C-alpha cells in the first residue's frame, strides 16, 4: 500500500510542479517568443530545460535530505534569510496568482462563452473546493495529473494540425540564428523560478517522502516534473511555429488563442479554452499551496489551519483581479522577477548542502554542485544584463 501511495505522491508532486509552471504566462510567452525568434526559440527551450533540471535536482534533494522546507533551511543557514525569501516568494506567488485567476476566466470564456469575471469566480470556487476536502493533498495530486494529461493531448493535436517545419526546428535548436538572454531568463524564471521550483519538493515532504532512502524517488519526481512541462512547451512551440511559418497573422491581444484557432478552426479555439483553463486552474492551486507552505512552519496556528490560509490566498487573488482587472504587465514582470529570485534561492540551497547541521552526513554529488554553481552564475549574469537593459 505504501508503494502505491508513494507512486501517487511522486507523480502528484511532479505534475504539481509542472502544472504550476504551465500557467497563462507560460502559454503566452511560448507563443510570443516563437513569433519573435522563430525556429531559434528551440535553442532557448533546450537551454532552459538543461538549467531547469540542474535547479530541480539540487533543490528537491536537499529539501528531502534535510527534511525541512526551504525557508527553514535558509533560516538555519542565516537567521532571517528564510523570512526574506518567503516574503519574495509570497509576493511573486500572489502576482502570478492574480494572472492565473484571470487566465482561468479567459479559458472558460473561450470554452463556454461566459464572461471572464464569472469564469474567474467559478474557477476560484473550484480551486477552493479541493482544499475543503479532508485529504486535500491527494485530491490536489489527482487533479493536477488529470489536467496535465488534458493539456498534453490537446496541445499535441494542435501541433499536428499546424504542420510545423520539424527539420528547421531541430536544426535551429542546436544552431540558432538568434539568442535572446531576456527570453532565457523569462523562460527559466517562469518554469523553475520563485515558488514553482519548491512546489513539488514541499509536496513530497508533506507526503512523507524524505530522507536519504527516498532520494531516488525524489530525483525521479523532479525529472518527471520538468519532462511534463518541457513536453507541453515543445509541442506549443511547434504549434506556434507551424502558424508562423505559414505567414499567418497572429492576434496580438490573445496570441495563443489565435494560434489554436488558425491551426484547427473553431475546434482549435475551444481547445485553447480547455488548455488555458487547465493551465490556469492548476497554477492557482500550485501557487496558493506552495506560497502558504513557505510560512506554515513560522507559526503552529498557520500549520494547523493550512488549508484555510490557502483558501484565503485564493480569495485574495480573486478579489484583486475583480477590482483591478487582468494584470498582463504584472504577470510578465513576475516571470522576470522569478528569474532574479532563482540565483538567491539556489545559492542558499547549495550552501546548505554542505552544512552538517542541515544535511547530516549526506554527501551531495559533486556534479550537481558544479551544475548548480554554473546555473547561479549564468542566471545572475543574464538577470543582471536584462536589468541593465530594462
TrEMBL record:
One of its GO terms (biological process) is iron ion transmembrane transport. GO terms for molecular function: cadmium ion transmembrane transporter activity; manganese ion transmembrane transporter activity. It comes from the Bacteria. The keyword Iron-sulfur does not apply. It is a multi-pass membrane protein. The keyword Cell cycle does not apply. Keywords: Membrane, Transmembrane, Transmembrane helix. Pfam families: Nramp (PF01566). The chain crosses the membrane at residues 37-55, 76-98, 110-133, 145-167, 179-201, 222-251, 271-295, 307-324, 330-354, 366-384. It is found in: Membrane. InterPro entries: NRAMP_fam. GO terms for cellular component: plasma membrane. This is Mn2+/Fe2+ NRAMP family transporter. It comes from Pedobacter metabolipauper.
